[in-house]
Amino acid sequence: MNRSLERKIRHILIVVFALSFLVAAGVSTVGIYLTARGEYLGQMRSQVNIAQNLIADFIFGYDDHILAIIRKCPDGSLDEVKSFLQEELHFHNPGDIYYLLDQHQRIVLISPPYESYEGMTLSPRAFHRSSSEISDVHQSLFSDKTVITIQYPMAGGITLVFERDLQSINRIMSFFDKSKVFDDQAIFILTNEGKVAYHPDTRLVKSRHNLAFDMREWHLPAAGNLFSYRLYGQKYIAYKKLLTVPQGWTIYFSVPAGLLLSHVERVVFGQLIMLLVFFGVVYFILQLSLNRYFSRPVRQIVKALERYDSDGEGQMMEPGLACGVQEFSAIIDAINAMSAQVNSSNKNLRRSEVQSRLLLNSTAEAIYGIDTRGRCTFCNSSFLQMMGYGSEAELLGENMHRLIHHSHADGTEYPLDECLAHKGFLEGMGSHIDTEVFWRSDGTGFSVEYWSYPIFQGDQIIGAVVTFIDITKRKQAEEKLAEEKEQLAVTLRSIGDAVITTDTAGRIVLVNRVAEELTGWGQDEARGRRLEEVFRIIDEISRQSHESPVDRVMKSGSFVDLANHTLLIAKDGSERAVADSGAPIRDSQSRIIGVVLVFRDVTQSRKIQEEVFKARKLESIGVLAGGIAHDFNNILTAILGNISLAGNMAVNDRQQALLASAEKASVRAKGLTQQLLTFAKGGEPVTETSSVAEVIRESAGFVLHGSNVACSFVIPDNLRLVNIDKGQISQVIQNIVLNAKEAMPEGGSIKIICENYHHSSQDHPPLAAGDYVRISIADKGAGIAPEILDRIFDPYFTTSKHGQGLGLAVTRSIIAKHGGHVVVESEVGKGSVFTIYLPVSGDSNKIQPEVAAEWQSCAGRVLIMDDEEIVREVMHTMLTQLGFEVLAARDGQEMLAMYRQAAEAGNPVDVVILDLTIPGGMGGKEAVTRLLQKYPQARAVVASGYYNDPVMADCATYGFKAAVAKPFQLEELGQALRKAME
Description:
By secondary structure, the chain is of the alpha+beta class. 42% of the residues lie in helices and 22% in strands. The protein is elongated. Residues 126-132, 207-217, 679-683 and 844-857 have low confidence and may be disordered.
């Protein structure tokens, strides 16, 4: 309690007394007003009653006498009635006018001095049936007087009419003007039409039409029988009464409103003076009592409380402060008891506060408290040290958001209504943020991680406590880690191998781009899944699942490889051959924290390796076959040459037939050696730019001639040219078509399709990128079983009872040496498709037609160089028969010496026939080079069993004029010599 309470109580008393005074004054005023109004109303009512009686006497004072005259009136003629009435009607007022109307409303009798109106016909008018009913106030028909009309119907349809002059009422009502009850009183009468029948103010009654005072235009608010109205700017109060005679008329008794109000004011003023004195005395007594028994003890108790010191001991209030008031004595006793309890609680609180402050300052985390308006309520020493403030007093009451949290990390303004540290607790929620910045007293900022929790007092939030730590170093470490992680991610995305990392439980942590492509799982959808779900691997042969690489690494704790023949099944079900390795990921203490798996798609590389292996196998076989074929060709040269010579010397048909049969067998043996020589190392086709279309048609037609297998061709006109050895490509087509024919013993059809094809490096089969002609040969035979499909190109592998197993091996070798590729697809029961790819020619020149060489007889000197004696002998015999002189040498050194001797002797050699390969000596290639260096005009012919050797394919490049392949017949040898001597 303080002095303001005392003033409030005093103000309340004043308000109460003022209201009481106003209510009493209002009630008294209303009562006085009602009493005064009742007195005035009684006097008005008395005056109106008197006026009512006077008006009735005026209007109908001699009505009974007139009715009596009418009853005595004779029923004779109209003239008799007129005479009777003239004699009887002499008692009326001088201002009244009477006239008699016949049944046609014509005046037949009128009071003097208005006889001039006799004979005038009036318009039909309503006749009153009772004397109590009178007409409206109107102007007389015969004068300018204001009158009312009373009609008396008579027998025979005639009517007696009286016009009563209203000016007579003025004389009667002047009685009230002489004996006034109130000053400025006025009595006026209105008809049932609202027109003035009487008013003392003649200004309100027009002399002619009497329309100036029309009550229908008044605004008279009703209050019982009293009405108020304004006239000439002054307010009047009137008492109203409806008259029964004449019926519908109204009489008003009015006085000025000020007259009534002035009387009320005089009485009310006296009453108010008495009330004011009474309430003043009561207020003075109450104020003294309030001060003695309330205000003084309250002030004493308040002063005692102001002197109270919570740190003091035993401070109590004296009982005398209550001033003898029992209630205040009880309050003092309660305050003394509470003071003792507060002293005890304060001691405990101080001890607890000291302990809390010690605990608060002992933590390394910065802590501060705020109220609901964000103002600081406390902070610990770590906060002061971290934020650069000297004392807690600098911060108490300060808005902490504006002080330390006003900006984002980039310096932009941080609105208070967005601050979670000062906003979340108001909604009863805690907040934890590690992405914001606090600002020190010197203006520097640092990254913080903070926690904000509301402080409750009961169910009400009174503030919050905020705890934060400096995480600048952690942020720097995280940024560095993020950079390293980004570098790692970039590295993993850029390497060609697929990489998957997992934790120790085998759950995926990271998948790089290549691994996403191979497995079909994206990084986001793969993260957190088991490795076996994304990296599904099985054995290619047994189709059984492999053990998880993570399990193997975790068991061994070291590097592991996948087993051979491992297939990876992608998300879409596609399969790829993969090779991979797994290794543990270790932390700085060498503990395994995960596994990294590196793998790659080896599907294409395996196919390429298989192709390389087959090529090497063919190359090895070719080396062997080349050596055998060379020696065999030397033997065949001797055999075929001797048979050819013997055939020319046969004396009868029997001998010629036998020699022809032997020659045919030798030619077949030559074909076998040519197939073997296809595998020979270094053998190249003798190519020319050609269209492969005619080679295909002729070769296929040759094989299928007379068979029950039909062949159809789809070859476009714009098929591009290729560089081919026609003989070798013909052999390829024949081998494939022959296999297709044998696969359909009951007959069938073969379809050969040629088309231009562009190959990219990513496509299959393994070819260099570029343009090719693709040849597809499809049959509808029995097909090839999958288990032998990869072996059909191996030398000497065949499923035919009559085959030698070289056809497809030769086919593969020929196509490879043309820079192309051949593949096969087959399905048992449906047939096979062989597809050949041949590179197109870069030479756009037209194909040169072949010109057949003409046979010419020649003579000259020929030098033979060959290491085989049997070959030298047969060639010597064949050349002698052709007409040449023959010299023979065993190697290049001997040939050069013999050629020089012949030239020096003046008998030079015309043509030199050189064997290409001389074991242990100078071969034909080196020999012709030395020969031409010394004798540029020398002519040389190369002869070799390696007919696919590059020198044989392009002999002119190496200095030879012509080439002949061993074994050869007499005609072939003669053609080569003639070509060289041209």
